[in-house]
C-alpha cells in the first residue's frame, strides 16, 4: 500500500509539472514581455460572488481597469452554495491557463497553499489573507488596514451623532470583521469618550450567512435605531442593504463599507442615508498587482499592505454629507499616518 | 419475472424524475436563451488530460461521500416516520468536538482515527437523542425540536471553536481548532488509480469512502434483514398497529434517533480526516439540509441515496466548468431543484401505477397500510416497492417499506443556500 502511494505521488508530481508547463506557459512569457501574450486573468470569488455591489465587484473593477490599460481578458468564478469547492475554482483556472489568478477573500487562505504548490509557474494573489505564512514565492497577499479606515468612520460617526449613541453591525464574527469593529470603536471614542456604541454581529463565527442576509441586517439595525443610535456603520457585505433600509425607515444615517455605496445602492431613498463609506480599495490593489505582473516585478512570497498612507483605505465623500467635518477627519488621518495614533486591530 | 418487475418498479420513479427534471430545466434554459445541449455537454466534459479526468472523478466522489452519509442519516429517521431536520446541527457539533478531541490526544494511527470517529458518532447521537427524549416524554414534535436544537448546536459549535477549542493564533483570519496530529489522518485512496492504470490525480480521494460504503451496507442489512429493522419500519407505518403486535414504539423512537444521529456524526469526517484536519470557521455547512433532498431522491434506500449523492455531486462539480464556458451557474441550481420536485411527482405516479398493478394482480389490498394518523402522505410512495410487501409479508402486513411521508414537504430546502 505504501509503495502504491509512493508510486502514486511520483506520478502525481510528474503530472503536475506536465500540466503547468503546458497550461502555464503563457505566464512565464507574459511576465517578461507583456505585449506579446494576451493577458488572461483568473478571478475566484468567495460566497456572494459577482454582483455584490461591494467587495467582489471592487475586485472586478480593478481587473477591468488593468485590462483597459494592458488589454486581455478575464474569467471570474463563483463557488457553490456552501463554498466547498474553493480549491476547484483555483485549479480549474490554472488548468485553463489563466495567469495571474486572484483569489478574492480570506477564506481562500486555507486552500491556496496546496494550489500554489501544484502550479508553480502560475502567479497567484490572495486578497485579505497573508501570503507570508504560506511561504510560496508565486503567491502575493494583498492586505488592507481596515482598522485605520474604520477609525475614520468612527470619527465621522461620533462627530456627526446628535444623540451620542452610534452602532456597528458586523456580518460574521470573524477576526477580519473584528478589525473593522476595533477601529470604529477606537475612532468614535477618540472623539467622544462617553459615546454609547451598540455592537452586534448578524451570525457567529462559522456561519457565513451573516454576509448575505439583508433581512437580518435590517432587524439588527432597526433595534439600534430604536434604542437611540442615530448612525450605524456596517461591515456586513450584502446584509448592509438591510442596514440602509432600516436607516431610511427610521430617518437616521448609516455608513457603508468596501465600495462607495452611495454610488452602488441605486436607490435615491437609500443614498440619502449613506453618510459616507469606508473605502477598501480592492480595485486599486488588484489593478496594481496586475500592473506589476505585466511589468514582471511581482516579488511573491510577501504581503502588500494597503493602509491609509498608501490610500488603500479611506472615507468616501459622495453626497457631501461629511464635507463640513473634513478638517477633523484629515487631522486624525494625518495622526494615524504619522504614527501618533496606533489603531487597535482587535476589539 | 418478479425480480425484473421489482427492479423496473424501483427504477421507474427516479428515472422518470430525472427525465422530467431534464426536460423542465432544458425548457427553462431555452427560455433563458441558453443552449441546453451545450450545457449538458459541458457537464459531462471532465477535461482533456487523464489527470484532469481523474481529478474530476475524485472531486465528485469526495463530495458524494458526505452527501451520502447525510442522506443516510435522514433516511433512517424517515423510515420510521420521523423527520430529523437536526442532522445539520448534529454533524457540526459532532465535528467540532471530534476535532478537539482528535487534536488533544496522541494515539497510534488506526486507534486515533477510530477515537475521533467514535466521538463524533457519540456526540451526534446524543444530540439527536435529545429530540427523541423530548418526543417520547413530552410529545414535542421532532420537527420543531430538531430545528431549535440546530440553532443551539451551531451556537455551541461556534462558542467551542472561538473559545475553548481555538487552536489558531490570535488575529489569523480563519479561526480553527488545533490541527489533528498525523496519526489521526485518514490515508487517501489515490493508490487505487495507479492500480487501475489511471492517471493519479493531484487531489486526494477520501479514504472515508470505504467507511461510507460499509456503513451503507450495514444500515441496509439492519433495516431490511433484522428484527430491529422490521420493528422500525412497522412502527413507522403504523405506530398503533406496531404497538398492538408488541413493538415498543417509544423505545423505537429513541433507538432510531440515536442511530440516525450516529450516522449524522460521520458527515463531517471525510473532510476532517481527509483534508482539513481541523474544524474551521469555513468548514462545509449545509450538508444536513442537502441530505434531506438526497434521501428523498434516493427514496430512503441506501443504494438510491448513493446514486442521489453521486448525482448531486456531479451537478455540483459542473458548476465550475459551466462558469468557465460562460453559462450561468444557476442552471445547476435549477436542475437540482427540479429534480427534487420531480421526485415527489414521480413517486406519486409510481405509487398509482403500482397500486393498480397490485389491484389487478392479487386480491390482497396490501398497500393501504397507513392508519391515517399522519395524513395521506403516509402511504404515498410506499407502493413502488411492493416487493417489500412480499418479503416482509409475515405478521401484520406492515412490512411494506415506505419512503418519506413527512419528507415530501422538505424538498426545496437545498435551494435556499444558493
UniProtKB/TrEMBL annotation, chain A:
Keywords: Cell membrane, Lipoprotein, Membrane, Signal. Residues 45-345 form the ABC transporter substrate-binding protein PnrA-like domain. Gene3D superfamilies: 3.40.50.2300. It holds the Pfam family Bmp. GO terms for cellular component: plasma membrane. It is a lipid-anchor. InterPro entries: BMP_lipoprotein, Peripla_BP_I, PnrA-like. Belongs to the BMP lipoprotein family. It is found in: Cell membrane. Its main location: membrane. This is Nucleoside-binding protein. It comes from Geodermatophilus saharensis. Residues 1-16 form the signal peptide.
From TrEMBL, chain B:
It comes from the Bacteria. The chain crosses the membrane at residues 54-78, 90-107, 113-136, 143-161, 205-223, 252-270, 330-350. Keywords: Cell membrane, Membrane, Transmembrane, Transmembrane helix. Residues 409-418 have a biased composition (Basic and acidic residues). The lineage of its organism: Bacteria, Bacillati, Actinomycetota, Actinomycetes, Geodermatophilales. Pfam families: BPD_transp_2 (PF02653). This is Nucleoside ABC transporter membrane protein. InterPro entries: ABC_transp_permease (IPR001851). It is a multi-pass membrane protein.
